[in-house]
Write a structure and sequence with these properties.
The complex is a heterodimer of chains A (115) and B (113). Chain A has 115 residues and is mainly β. Chain A is built from no helices and eleven strands. In chain A, strands 2, 4, 5, 6, 9, 10 and 11 form a seven-stranded mixed β-sheet that branches. Helix content of chain B is 0%, strand content 53%. With 113 residues, chain B is mainly beta. The mean pLDDT of chain B is 94. The N and C termini of chain B lie far apart (38 Å). Classes of the chains: A mainly beta (115), B mainly beta (113). Chains A and B meet through strand 4, strand 5, strand 9 and strand 10 of A and strand 4, strand 5, strand 9 and strand 10 of B.
Chain lengths: 115, 113
Amino acid sequence: ETGVTQSPTHLIKTRGQQVTLRCSSQSGHNTVSWYQQALGQGPQFIFQYYREEENGRGNFPPRFSGLQFPNYSSELNVNALELDDSALYLCASSLLAGGQVNEQFFGPGTRLTVL
Amino acid sequence: DQQVKQNSPSLSVQEGRISILNCDYTNSMFDYFLWYKKYPAEGPTFLISISSIKDKNEDGRFTVFLNKSAKHLSLHIVPSQPGDSAVYFCAASGSNSGYALNFGKGTSLLVTP
């Protein structure tokens, strides 16, 4: 069983640039969620994708967008980067079946630094 | 607003003793609670969970207790081992939040030999 993988591991961007982060789900999972973890904070929910559609969104502006592909992998795109976007971005996959909540399994994260 | 709170940023325990990590929540619609452990440079690792229909769940050295009336849960680790040293996050979800996890800020546990 392959776990959740994310790429790249680290990334440095400058203000105003755009970034794309990638995630591969754990096999057998159909749902992907993205979280932002700032230093000293717990992860904050950005959005969730199920069956290639957004299935819920946290308090993040529209410049945070995402995609889920037929193989359940996912991308997080952030436009017009700001200094406060510097954080660890975590992807989590889970199995949503019959409306039942299941545990989310996290990847190692992508450390984004915005200068 | 922080709906899940972990009021102790850090905890130090001797090896072999019990570690008790606490978590409070404010949203009465939460019905599923999880604990994650996180080592530096790694993503959070799922540890144990509990549904709101239960008040206790046990898995080996780890036990989670839920007190719904107090909106409080705790994680007990017995006996504590040095490898348990990590940051522990409490998380909660509910059907009204689309199964998004709401995390606390974490408690850093140090188990000393």
